[in-house]
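Lab manual, section 2.4: Encoding a predicted structure.

Procedure: take the sequence of the chain (264 residues), apply the prediction step described in section 2.3, and record the output as structure tokens. A sample record is shown.
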Amino acid sequence: MTILVTGATGNIGRRVVDELLGLGAEDIRALTKNPSRAALPEQVTAVTGFLGEPDTLPAAFDGVQRMYLAPYPPTLAATLELARRAGVQYVVALSGGAHWQAHADAVAAAGLPHTQLGPGEFCENFAMWAPQIGTGTVRDLAPDAIEAPVSMADIARVAAHLLATPRDEHLGRMYELTGPEAITRAEIARQIGVGLGIDVQMQRCTRAEAEEVLRPVMGDEVGWYLDLLGQTDPQQANHDVHRLTGTPAMSMAEWARRNADLFG
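Recorded output:
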């Protein structure tokens, strides 16, 4: 049984590879643009290819039964059609709602047995606050906005469990993965401080001030991010990570403790 991981050197795909190995998967194929530089475990078969270049995919798909599909909208239709022709039997796709809804709809309409993962904000996004965390004060546009951030590690764990042991109950489902609790952005900053062993508070700021402090970290994406923040409804937490993997999702404090290097 061959499992293909696309985006295998990306932030989530690489973690999916490691999680599959931890679950005992033995025939893992990893799609990467440069296998010689991918530094994948020796048990993994690296194959040359890129979702953005569909002509590179048929050979990678040959003999694959299950696949983790990283999000790459520009060539999604071609990728799904090639997977269908290759006889891929099950796809776990990182998709989502909101601005990813068209992506999710395309996966659902492709005629492939699938499960989709639709996380909200990643815990990793809050590394954008790193330059401010050390000062003890984070300036933010929406301190009272409620979110339930989920870590990339937990998303990868869910994807790997689904791929390792597919079940009919998961087919056609969209799992909106979250962290263990819904909290304000001010509480997110405080919990990061708890994980790092420092006191962190939050100050409300204007849109212009938020752009000023985040642009050096986020570049041109800061405008898109702040626009989205203003449109997002309060997020509800669920326990799908725990239910699907047997282990709870990380809290923000635990995530920060494990990733202290991101905050210098």
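Check your result against the sample. The domain at 3-118 is CATH 3.40.50.720 (Rossmann fold).
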